[in-house]
Amino acid sequence: QVQLVESGGGLVQTGGSLKLSCAASGLPDDVYTMGWFRQGPGKEREFVSAIMWIAGGTYYAESAKGRFIISRDNAKNTLWLQMNSLKPEDTAVYYCYWRGLYDYWGQGTQVTVSS
Q1: Least enclosed by CB within 10 Å: which of 16, 27, 100, 101?
Q2: Cα distances (angstroms) measured from residue 82 to each of 9, 30, 100
Q3: Residue segments in the chain with a per-residue pLDDT below the cut of 50
Q4: Helices marked H in 1-115 — which ranges?
Q5: pLDDT at 27
Q6: CB 59 within 8 A of CB 3
Q7: Which whole-number Å values give the CA distances from 15 to 73, 85, 102, 105, in the listed order?
Q8: With contact defined as beta carbons under 8 Å apart, do 21 and 79 qualify?
Q9: How wide is the angle at C-alpha 40 spanned by C-alphas 115 and 18, nearest 5°?
Q10: Rg for the chain, CA atoms, rounded
């Protein structure tokens, strides 16, 4: 059974930093990418960042470029998102996902950025 457990969310002031973690277990062998989406209040879920499992190539939404850094540890099946220079518009529930033949999602972790 696949399980993704996120942590690291919280309340931070504008300009602050947070580091989200996503620990995975029970993953199948066909995973090829993982990353983060977020859903702000009253908004649709949107892509934030992704990283390739083998090659390590990274992708970022325009809103995340230059501020967020995605990384992973394949041996530990762990994914991180370092978020710097946070803005109130970054307030959202952040979800990690792992993608292979199927998509697997975490339960979400709340990030709140106060102005």
Answers
A1: 101
A2: 11, 26, 24
A3: none
A4: none
A5: 86
A6: no
A7: 27, 4, 36, 28
A8: yes
A9: 55
A10: 13
